[in-house]
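Onboarding guide, step 5: your first structure request.
Type a short instruction followed by the sequence, for example:

Predict the 3D structure of this protein.
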Amino acid sequence: MTLKAAKRGAISPFIVMDVMRAANAREAAGEDVLHMEVGQPSSAAPSKVLQAARDALDQELLGYTDAFGVPPLKDRIAAQYKDMYGVTIDPARIAVTTGSSGGFLLAFLSAFDAGDRVALASPGYPAYRNILTALDIEVVDILTGPDTDFQPTPHLLEKVEGKLDGLIIASPSNPTGTMIDRDGLQALADYCRERGVRVVSDEIYHGITFEEPAHTMGEFDDECFVVNSFSKYYSMTGWRLGWLVFPESLARPVECLAQNLFISAPTLSQMAALAAFDCPTELDANVARYKANRDLLLTELPKAGFNKLSHAQGAFYVYADVSHLTDDSQIFCQDILAKTGVAITPGTDFDPTRGHKYVRFSFAGSQDDMAEAVRRLRGIGGNGLST
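The system replies with structure tokens like these:
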């Protein structure tokens, strides 16, 4: 007899991981690869974080912590909101989580029931869609484009048929690197508040901005969820540590979920992360490198045939419309990897409707790698890559 398998596991794969596997296989075969597919910093965690981890290994028991994390770290996160945004956040409203992924899961489970309808911008981070789908929450795509910097607006939300229960926003965004300015966030907060729509704000790329600093949705809406992480700006992806700012009204449900699902975030990572806020020189040097890489790509990619690029104001991504070169971005990316050794991500990861016409470039790597990547792409030209 065949045993039952749950339908909730029948979600789309994270295609960028497939691309990374193909790139790693090429490297294992002795061929070089320039990685522009994975959205993680190429720099190590700051030196003070590494030393704090060593000290904790020598001095700490490293047992479980409270479900919401160690109080000194929560206090330091709250202080960061005051320093960066001028916003007062009660540390009691902060949960330290197992990466931003843990934060999204806690937010979705505490705010939405099966059958609820949650809107998100398309293109957008695929895990939003896939986690919601696994939880039997209906995903409502907001098809965005260059006219709104690939971001949702009240006007676009107004076009949605039926009632919405939630909205996910991301500023800066993956995969486009675009941002929502202060007025845009205020407009979305007002629109959602009037209609009873819960906002979940992905702010994991805060700190990595190139023109204007980012604003937190916490400035405009006390009932929203704010998700952040030590992965991107703080260069701590593998430490699996993030945080969630949750509404006071949902404190107990979030806590009960955290206790049962995770017990607590990794204790060693929490001890080390206390030092992350004391490393501005190292971290800002990383941002300066990202900006130089972005500027290089925006100048040089058009010379290789990629001339329809997103306005990357933050994060470390450029999203490119390649509809003039291909109608199958997955085959297109495989072709690029085979011909140039440059690994990039097909847009199908981020937009199930139009992603076959887009690709994403990550510019989190070294400046030398970025320069060599665009040199190789220019060498064969966009027409040589068309399918």
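Each response can be followed by summary notes, for example: The chain has two domains: 7-45+280-379, 47-278.
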